[in-house]
Amino acid sequence: MLLRIFLASLVSVAATNGQQEPGTPTTNGLPSPSSSSSSSSSSSSSSSSSSPSPSPSPSSSPPPLLLVSFDGFRADYLQRYHMPNLELLYRGGVLVEELTNVFTTKTFPNHYSLVTGLYAESHGMMASKMYDAETNKTFSLMDDKDPFWWNEAEPLWVRALDSNYSTAAAMWPGSDVAIRNRTATHFLPYNSSVTFAERLGNISAWLKGSEQDGGVIFAALYWEEPDRSGHMFGPDNTTAMAKALKEVDDNVGLLVSELRRAGLWGHINVVVTSDHGMTQCSAQRLIRLDDCLDPHNYTLVDLAPVTALIPTQDPEKVFSLLDKCHPHMTAYQKKALPERLHYRNNRRVQPIILIADEGWLIIQQGDKLPTLGNHGYDNTLPSMHAFLAASGPGFRQGYRTAGMKSVDVYPLMCHLLGVPPAPNNGSLAQARCILSGEGCVDVALVAGVVVGVLLLLTAVTCLFGLMKPRRARGPVPFQRLQLEEEDDDDDEPLLG
Ligand SMILES: *[C@@H]1O[C@H](CO)[C@@H](O)[C@H](O)[C@H]1NC(C)=O
Ligand SMILES: *[C@@H]1O[C@H](CO)[C@@H](O)[C@H](O)[C@H]1NC(C)=O
Ligand SMILES: *[C@@H]1O[C@H](CO)[C@@H](O)[C@H](O)[C@H]1NC(C)=O
Ligand SMILES: *[C@@H]1O[C@H](CO)[C@@H](O)[C@H](O)[C@H]1NC(C)=O
Ligand SMILES: *[C@@H]1O[C@H](CO)[C@@H](O)[C@H](O)[C@H]1NC(C)=O
Ligand SMILES: *[C@@H]1O[C@H](CO)[C@@H](O)[C@H](O)[C@H]1NC(C)=O
Ligand SMILES: *[C@@H]1O[C@H](CO)[C@@H](O)[C@H](O)[C@H]1NC(C)=O
Ligand SMILES: *[C@@H]1O[C@H](CO)[C@@H](O)[C@H](O)[C@H]1NC(C)=O
Ligand SMILES: [Zn+2]
Description:
- The protein has helices at residues 2-16, 45-50, 77-80, 84-91, 107-116, 120-123, 156-159, 196-208, 227-233, 238-261, 315-323, 409-417, 428-431, 443-467; strands at residues 65-70, 94-100, 130-132, 137-139, 167-170, 186-188, 218-223, 269-273, 279-280, 286-288, 298-302, 306-311, 329-333, 352-356, 361-363, 373-374, 386-391, 399-405.
- By secondary structure, the chain is α/β, with parallel strands linked by helices.
């Protein structure tokens, strides 16, 4: 019994560890954008704080949630570049420094994972280019509207409709597709020429709602940078990336000032995140398939940095040629893909998958470097990881944590919205740590403490055994040590 109390107190120490950060802003320290292209609206903070809390949804509803993605925002950009607006946002909220994403570390797979909580093999959006042999259909970023590719899962903006909420999606991949026959209540068709400010204007209006109909409970907003610059200039070009990230940060400033102007800031939950990182490529790091194999021997589905192909004849021979093709490329037959990639159990995975090492690109022939920066590589690489920052009534203030998984974002959002999550691959266990008013357990620390205590107990037990060798064998005192109460803690059942 005493032991249990001892363990329990250790666990609670572990759970509160890291909550306190000296010098972080308090409740009244709402961020105000320090620089942005819309300086005219930055003076409205006093009016919004005196106005009553807007309730765009019925009073019983939780606060609305806005999910924003800045495509290709590599985790370490936060350390390498000065982004005052983003910093203000997470200083008043939370920062997850590194968000581990899903394989392939491409835009569509990861945006779909964020809003479904599923690995690519389970939501079916496997890559930027796909082929389905049964239907003879192909998918590409230019031709992405067929619901067939999306229907294996249901994004949160569709799921929340079942709770009788209205939702919005502004150019998030899949926004303009009738997934399982439904779109969000409001959406913008994809058009890369529409500015961030324009997209934001629509999102803000939808969140606010009108006299007749309440605002949306969930909105998703997508922006193409810093991905575009990362591909074009390479992430190692600090001049180009500083400029791109300054623009991204200005957009964060614009976001906060627009939400403030609409009287939403501080009343809604805002999550700012990304789909993947970026790594530097080079003309010195090209892998040419034509050097290893006649192009007539396979049909190419997707190319770089993860190649998907279908052998046209003699699959074993084709595989063995590719297997020894290049030291910086690993060839897998579908059935041998590592479990940890969660990239096997779907008919959209082609018979042979080639994965390039970080910074290497697979091409068919020639010496032309397709892009100076790319992503798509193994999702254990830190350069492929994104970040997450959040602020609002549901989040802690001034809290920082080292990592989380991107599949955990979906159960987190469902929890904040009170929407029952569909079966998924995420968990609230880790995500709970960034929520306000939630106890959370630092799994690694608790595991360490438990192991340490058990080792100590074993040592003590052995010592006792040595000291009293003749004593009759009774029950070993600590054999029954179990954490039975795990079962009745107040965690919600986690699906998947
Ligand atoms: C598959 O589609 C392609 C064009 O998308 C077409 O050329 C080909 O004939 C089709 N194959 C079958 C078996 O229908
Ligand atoms: C949604 O609204 C419909 C019709 O008003 C009602 O039958 C249903 O129970 C509601 N669902 C939820 C989850 O509130
Ligand atoms: C979509 O609606 C059509 C008819 O409107 C129906 O035939 C089809 O089964 C629906 N598809 C899904 C995925 O619900
Ligand atoms: C995309 O947006 C631009 C700028 O708003 C507009 O001029 C153009 O017509 C739009 N394209 C389509 C296809 O809607
Ligand atoms: C988005 O906002 C613009 C400018 O206010 C407006 O003209 C347009 O109709 C809005 N789009 C949608 C789909 O509501
Ligand atoms: C970096 O990008 C800038 C454009 O912002 C370009 O002018 C410059 O040549 C690039 N530097 C390198 C080393 O590629
Ligand atoms: C590859 O294609 C060439 C030309 O079509 C053919 O001669 C050769 O046998 C094929 N090799 C394999 C391994 O299929
Ligand atoms: C991911 O979740 C889906 C849906 O619950 C499930 O079918 C699949 O087995 C899960 N994948 C893993 C690796 O647990
Ligand atoms: Zn992307």
